[in-house]
Specification:
about 70 residues, about 0% strand, 3 helices
């Protein structure tokens, strides 16, 4: 996963972020995988949105064999 600099993060559209307060940026597939691996640290209320955004970025539909976290 390429690390985002503060300037790059500020330049991302708000729609790229899946968590509250512009947390969990998911601009590419590697960030989607990272978000799924770190989802246990997210607030319970934000987890469904993070999962949905990450799965969409990965091109998977829920229930097609991916392990759910």
């Amino acid at each position: 996963m390429a690390r985002l600099t503060a300037q790059q993060r500020r330049g991302l559209k708000s729609s790229v972020f899946a968590g509250p307060n512009r947390s969990y940026p998911i601009p590419d597939k590697s960030h989607a995988r990272s978000a799924l691996s770190l989802i246990r640290h997210a607030p319970k209320s934000a987890q469904p949105k993070i999962k949905a955004r990450a799965y969409a970025m990965l091109g998977h539909k829920p229930g097609n064999g991916l392990r759910r976290t």
